[in-house]
Amino acid sequence: MKKNNIPTRIYLTEDQIPTTWYNLRADMKEKPAPLLNPGTKKPVTVSELSNVFCEKLAEQELDNDTRYFEIPKEVRDFYKMYRPSPLVRAYNLEKALGTPARIYFKYEGNNTSGSHKLNSAAAQVYYAKDQGLKGLTTETGAGQWGTALAESSAFFNLPLTVYMVKVSYEQKPFRKFVMETFDAEVIPSPSMTTKVGQKILSENPGTGGSLGCAISEAVEKAVGGIETRYVLGSVLNQVLLHQSVIGLESKAAMSMIDEYPDIIIGCAGGGSNLGGLIAPFMQDKILGNNDPRIIAVEPSSCPSLTRGVYAYDFCDTGKVTPLAKMYTLGSSFMPSPDHAGGLRYHGMSPIISKLYDDGLLDAVSVEQTKVFEAAVLFAKTETILPAPESAHAIKQAIDEALICKETGEEKVILFGLTGTGYFDMTAYNAFKEGRMTDYIPKDEELKKEFDKLPKL
Ligand SMILES: *Cc1c(COP(=O)(O)O)cnc(C)c1O
Description:
The protein is α/β, with parallel strands linked by helices and 456 residues long. It has two domains: 9-17 and 73-114 and 243-450, Rossmann fold, CATH 3.40.50; 20-70 and 116-237, Rossmann fold (3-Layer(aba) Sandwich). The chain has helices at residues 46-49, 55-62, 73-79, 91-97, 118-130, 144-156, 166-171, 173-181, 195-203, 211-224, 237-256, 272-286, 304-307, 350-357, 368-382, 388-407, 425-432, 443-450, and strands at 9-10, 20-22, 68-70, 87-89, 102-107, 135-140, 160-165, 185-189, 228-230, 263-267, 293-299, 309-314, 323-328, 362-366, 412-417. The strands form four sheets. A seven-stranded mixed sheet has the order 1-4-5-15-10-11-14, sandwiched between helices. It has a four-stranded parallel sheet with strand order 8-7-6-9, sandwiched between helices. Strands 2-3 form a two-stranded antiparallel sheet. β10, α12 (272-286) and β11 form a beta-alpha-beta unit. It is globular. The N and C termini lie far apart (55 Å). The structure holds pyridoxal-5'-phosphate (PLP). Residues 115, 117, 144, 234, 267-274, 342-343, 387, 389-390, 418-419 line the site of pyridoxal-5'-phosphate.
């Protein structure tokens, strides 16, 4: 029976914001492979990592056993300014598709950063401040992470330097202005302010930069600075831990209306929103309490899960980070500049990589013109202009709902709507005017990068 008495927006109360984050690693039968020190090829220790990250975060990064971490009161109070985020029943999209499926999305775009990234930014800045640090550095691609971190840094009163991928810096000046409004220093990357930036520029003067390259610069700056640490917005175990707030709230809200998803869909760049959204549902799956199908959606132009290799690789282009075992396209892979939809990272969270390798989640890749078609349909039916990244999940949710239309199955679909697309209007405009193209890397191109992977 189609449940049509469910409210359109299912809100939890403030008291129902989770008090703990959930660490999925505690329930994984096999743990993700450890981060390795690239010099010694031995697993990194908390004390080694503490040179780069603040201590509490270094501990969270390496902790495979603690199931729940208490959310500090200050972070939970910060969350109250924009959480709980709504779970929305997409009645109008269902109607437009004529599907018997029930589609829900968890909307993380209701804050100035415009995405889920604030969930981890607030936590990371709080721990850095609590440790008495004097400054933070980070990278940002499209700008959401830098904005989230700038907001959090201004709130907790900690200076922030952001290395912003040069193409985005040039294409999205408004993102930069938002970060500067929150007092962050924004530097286009690659830059002359670091050794690794100078090296990259001398080899490739015209480069528009990449996330991997901005990470190298931000790490170098942090390690060389006084009481300064580096923070990263995705990929890391600690970030997936903080993002579990998305999944915990989703599960609580769905249980209020007596629903459980058959299919859970998230877009995958570095894997943090996906990892957070699926965490408590994956726990059910691993413990045998339920068996949802879980799907990661990535762009065809940067297909790390669907076409990458599962191997140890650097997390950055300049090879200054520890080695992570993950699905990767190679740390020097440069995604096509034509690709507007974000999700341009060469690797994938070690947790997501391990789950994928174990067959616990599926992955698909989609072309950006199809993604924008889905985005526009979604905007017109649900009146939220989605971020292009989020629209990857929308596209897959629509495809699954259309399969239900064929088979008549009333499946329950949950997807993560990670953010708004207000700063992506150049891409929407290119789509609207028919100037958007799809770029799919050739096997030979990928192979060249695989040959350069570190040999262990
Ligand atoms: C950063 C971002 C993503 C991708 O990052 P993940 O770590 O893979 O979640 C997706 N959507 C939006 C809106 C983002 O800002």
